[in-house]
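Pasting two entries for a bug report.
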Amino acid sequence: MSAASTGKIRVVLAEDQAMVRGALAALLSIEHDIEVVAAVADGQEALRVVGRERPDVLVTDIEMPQLTGLELTARVRELYPETRVVIVTTFARPGYLRRALDAGAHGYLLKDRPSAELADAVRRVNQSLRVVDPALAAEIWNAENDPLTDRERQILRRAGEGESTAEIARSLRLSDGTVRNYLSEAIAKMGASNRVEASRLARTKGWL
């Protein structure tokens, strides 16, 4: 069921913090032309709900369990390209914005913006327009290029969260040696002395 058949823009929300999720749902639900059809707490569930509901717009945070908002955006673009994605996050970093746009996001808003901007962004991306915070968009031109591969980023993120080499290897079905090689490459690219420092630097730049 689409916006054309219901008269409303159908939205799915993905946000792991219950209070924020409820607030966003309430803010959008008071709009006469927007209907929140589902609000979920993790990326994997969001992907399932998008497949079931086929909403016009998905509003998602970046940091979530199961699938990150960026991973979710890429999967939605691949599987359900008719659904447009707006990312709402605290990360005011050009690295995250660049990765979001590369993943297929149509909008990128910061959580400290006025609430009315979210509804406006939903309407605009539903009209095939792009919505990006202008100050952050200007910074992207001067931002460093992300040197990490997807696999290096995946492994470095897990290492930064405290997983051991063996745990990462089991989870990703790789050998311990392969995981160590990816970590060594990531550490070298970041100019760091260890995995923790590399993870911190990459996160600061918006690359994780």
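Entry 2 (this is the one that rendered wrong in the viewer):
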Amino acid sequence: MTTLEVSALHKHYGDHRALDGIDLTVGQGEVYGLLGPNGAGKTTLMKVVLGLQRPTSGHIRLFGEPYHRSALAQVGALVEVPGLWPHLDADAHLRAHARLRGVDHRWIDGVLEQVRLGEVRHRAVSKYSLGMRWRLGIAIALLVRPRFIVLDEPTNGLDPVGIREMRALIRTLAGAGTTIMVSSHQLGEIAQVCDRVGVLVAGRTHYEGPVDGLAVDGDLEAGFFRIIDSVGGGVR
């Protein structure tokens, strides 16, 4: 079974084609990486899948069914650095979101442990590192016990420790059976956590398959840049 199927997906802003016929398939339980240079369409694709923007045309299937907004109740997402209240702690954030979503507060303890914030749950967010704030954002997404999680550039701006923690969290979530789509322009990070990848350039899918399939003579970076260079770097 597939978690997400996208076919011939377009998103136009006037004459600009942010998505220009995207095709991709995310299998159930896998970690799927979206790769591409800045402006390739990764964030736009995620926002369309999450119902934050309307596509111009194309088709989406979610959990094997034609796309319907009701299915988004089973999807967690973090597409920007989360908007948090600096003076509140993690516990207060999760309680507030649990009330808004009608989620049982008993799930909060488990979610905090899952993202490894249990020991600092009563520390004000203003004292959190950027990596800890990202993890709190993911904790909020996990409150709905999602089958599918969408993460846009979750290592952007993190130091090496934060990147390692985020990588470990993604592996933990995947190990628990959650399907994850994660975007990045950093091939090395994607290669370490993903089962398969889609390479987007200029709003189109130019590769989909295993990470190793990108390689040219064993060199992943060479294969990645060969794709980008073949379409002029993706600049419109």
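Dev reply: Rendering is fixed now. As a check, the viewer should reflect this: The beta strands are 2-13, 16-27, 31-35, 57-62, 65-66, 75-78, 148-152, 179-184, 196-201, 204-210.
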